[in-house]
Amino acid sequence: MTPRAATHASVIAVDGPTEVAVGADFVLKIVSSCPAGCDLSGVQINVKAPDGTISIAEPATGGADPAAPRHVALKAPLEPSEHIWRVSCTAHESGGNHHDASLLPVPIRTRPYETSLAVWAIPSPVVTGKLFAIKVGAKSAAGCDLKGMCIAVCDEAGAVLATDVLGDTPWPGTSALYWCELTLVAPAEAGMFSWSVKFDASGLALPHNGASSRFSIAIVRPPEHRLTVKVIERETAAPIENAHLRLGAFRAATDGSGIAELMLPKGSYDLDVWKSGYEAPTTPIALNADLAVEVAIAAVPEENPDTAWLM
Amino acid sequence: MVKSTTDCEGPASAEVSRRAFLSTGAAGVVLAGAGAAEAQGVAQRYWDRSADIVVIGAGVAGLPAAITARDLGASVIVVDENYDIGGRGMLSGGRVHLGGGHALQQKAGIKDSADQIFADWVRHDTADARYSDRDLVRVFADENVATFNFLVENGVKFTERPIGPERASTVPRTFITVEWHIPSQVIAPGRARAGSGLVRQLELAARQKGAEILLQHEMKSIVREQARSGNALGITSDHNGTVVNIQARKGVIIATGGHTGNVNFRRTFDPRLTEEYQQACMPYVHQGADGELAAMEIGASLWATANQTAEAGSAITKTRHIGCRWGYATLVYEPESPMFHLAKATGLTVVDWQDVIFVNQAGRRFWNEADGSYKFFAAAMAYNGDPSKLNGGGPIWAIFDADATAREKWNPKPPNVDPDGFFFSADTIGELAGKINNPHQKKPISSQVLQETVNRYNGFVAAGVDQDFKKPTPMYKIETPPFYAAWSTPILHDTLTGLRTNTNTEVIDIHGDVIPGLYCAGESQGGFAQHGLARCLVFGRIAGRIAAKRTA
């Protein structure tokens, strides 16, 4: 008498992402198994997408391992939300035994692509009330064409100071940074200001999040007096070329004679000098008229084995 | 008396091997290759090779040891795990810090003496000298002139321009060797690796005098009569998968070069030194603490360990070539180097630290980028908020923009950078954060955090003051696309502690007793923390001399 076939369960296991970008391609790895050890590698497994499209998970090829996962290539919907893919097999006979149908819902969240911003060519400092220009670029994480999309510059309170649209071609050296140049008016008061640029991503065919980034600008009073600085080496009195000078927001670099000239408003400043390999004191400057100063800096070995102490 | 290489016995037949064993006078059977702990009668093995002296390591300590031992008539086998000789000396700048009034000092009008060297290097007012063993310093001082003369007699050439005074020294003592004349034998040619002229010439002298150098022989253990007692008898080594046991009738000299490449070992002294840190001279030289570990297995002790963490000298250094895995100060592997396939990139050499900011694994600045002091390293290795990374600070990344590449004249493309985990570029700072992917970067850097870090720094540049870390006159904004992130994790350089020895370089055990027949010189020797080549040369000579004179 032929023994009666047993009824076994079909178990489906899925490995895949829990979140993908909208419209992104992704892969689910599917394994079907029987707790009693029956070989289910030949069983048909279907994957039903959120829109009802059915894909067949073809058995893994190139190996005899019945536990090898089947790879199914899928595409995420364009709507940002949580979506369910349904992985199933029908009731079937395998290994001489009956196996029940099985269904595994696979939730995957889809998210919009990110965008990001760069702000550059910001002049520094800017004189109160003067016009100045900055460059702003926006980038889609999906590399989308952003030409014609809107950029806005806002002040600390969020008021829009200027708007423009991104140009036709990416900034040289970048893959897809679309950019524009905006003209702005400096505030009437001197000081440090932190403004922001905003990118509104609505309207793109592929859903994106917008982006915001801030930038700083130094606003100064109009220049009144000329400050001439000569930088020399302390021991030899030799002029130091390309020494960098800072007086707050003001800056300059010395020429071959060790001299730099700056136009500054009246006021008190700390004059700092920087050159790699030198040490310089901070020099207080009280500027009420044109002024010339000399700063002596000292050459010091860098605390680094490549200059101070090689093996 | 100079002997030919045939004085070294080997490769040995079984008969020769047994004779070699019997000549040691030890009772019972020959037990080699299992390490001292196993050498208690478990497995019987025979010596494959035999010599009076076995030197482990063909570098700046091992080569003078071998030459000196041959000068005194001992047969010598030198083993080295590498495919070529030299160790870190091959890649060094060749700056030999020997004084005492030698000929080049005299020619330059420099007055110096052994007593002055001693006085300088036991100074209490500098951590470079404070923690050293003064017995060793005294011997070092007394042997300076003789060691300089030894180098000259063995053909080492120097430039005559004195450099210094450096570190604890009060008179100029550094003279630079002349780079080896065959570029293909320099390992890192084209970058003033003058140390090649030292080690290649010493190799030539050692071979001419009859020392046998066995490359790709990795020492696996030092064989002692009993686990914790008796003479050191020889070593076991591995040659491409084959065990080669080498008997040392008079002595084994450890000259393996230090421990900075062994993460577990180096953390003995500083738990912060986790796996992400670079090592000077990698990938040519590993510095795996092999000699220290093998000696400690048979009872040796360490010595003057405070030197390793005294925050003096060059135990830790700032990277100079960024965007490559190994960016040590003056060392660059050009594409012509036989090491380039491992180094993978030359790196971008930073001239002005104003051109970059450094961020930690969290995407935040941590210190003034223009600083290179131990305060910088402490900040780089500080805990930065990751509960899964309590020790070590994780990777450090240099962040910069297209304007910086123009100022520095960098071409941020291979072979200058290694995009396989050590260099990244992107159109925006936010995008750059997401691209940084490296085995040591355990979590992605937040785009928002990195963007805020850069925005804040750019604000400091506009204002002229770094309110966070007081970088002097912060000069350049990081604003012009594209943007870059380059590996800039600090570099571990000097091994400044190691095995305890007496002034004869005899290794001392944990009870304070000599391990007969075991010697140590170079960076694996503890007690004298002076940076560089000189202490390796001096104590290498002493080890070779004392071992050769030992009665077998």
Describe the structure.
The complex is a heterodimer of chains A (311) and B (552). Chain A is mainly beta and 311 residues long. Chain A has three domains: 9-111, Immunoglobulin-like, CATH 2.60.40.650; 115-220, Immunoglobulin-like (Sandwich), CATH 2.60.40.10; 225-299, Carboxypeptidase-like, regulatory domain (Immunoglobulin-like). Helix content of chain A is 1%, strand content 52%. Chain A has one helix and 27 strands. Chain A has one helix spanning 305-308; strands at residues 7-8, 11-15, 19-21, 25-33, 45-48, 54-57, 70-75, 82-89, 92-94, 97-99, 102-111, 115-120, 126-127, 131-140, 150-154, 160-165, 177-185, 191-199, 211-220, 225-233, 244-247, 250-253, 259-264, 267-274, 278-279, 283-287, 291-299. Chain A has a five-stranded mixed sheet with strand order 3-11-8-5-6, with no helix packed on it. A five-stranded mixed sheet of chain A has the order 13-19-18-15-16, with no helix packed on it. In chain A, strands 23-20-27-25 form a four-stranded mixed sheet, with no helix packed on it. In chain A, a hairpin with a 5-residue loop joins strand 15 and strand 16 (160-165). Chain A is elongated. In chain A, 29% of the residues are buried. Chain B is an alpha/beta fold and 552 residues long. Chain B has two domains: 1-90 and 193-315 and 495-552, FAD/NAD(P)-binding domain, CATH 3.50.50; 316-492, Succinate dehydrogenase/fumarate reductase flavoprotein, catalytic domain (Flavocytochrome C3, Chain A, domain 1). Helix content of chain B is 25%, strand content 18%. Chain B contains 15 helices and 21 strands. In chain B, strands 1, 2, 5, 6, 7, 8, 20 and 21 form an eight-stranded mixed sheet that branches. A four-stranded antiparallel sheet of chain B has the order 14-15-17-16. A three-stranded mixed sheet of chain B has the order 9-18-11, with no helix packed on it. In chain B, a hairpin with a 2-residue loop joins strand 7 and strand 8. In chain B, helix 4 crosses helix 6 (134-153), helix 6 (134-153) packs across helix 15 (534-549) and helix 13 (429-435) crosses helix 14. The longest helix of chain B is centred in the first third of the chain and has 20 residues, at 134-153. Residues 1-44 of chain B have low confidence and may be disordered. The chains are: A mainly beta (311), B alpha/beta (552). The interface between A and B is large, with 50 and 54 residues.
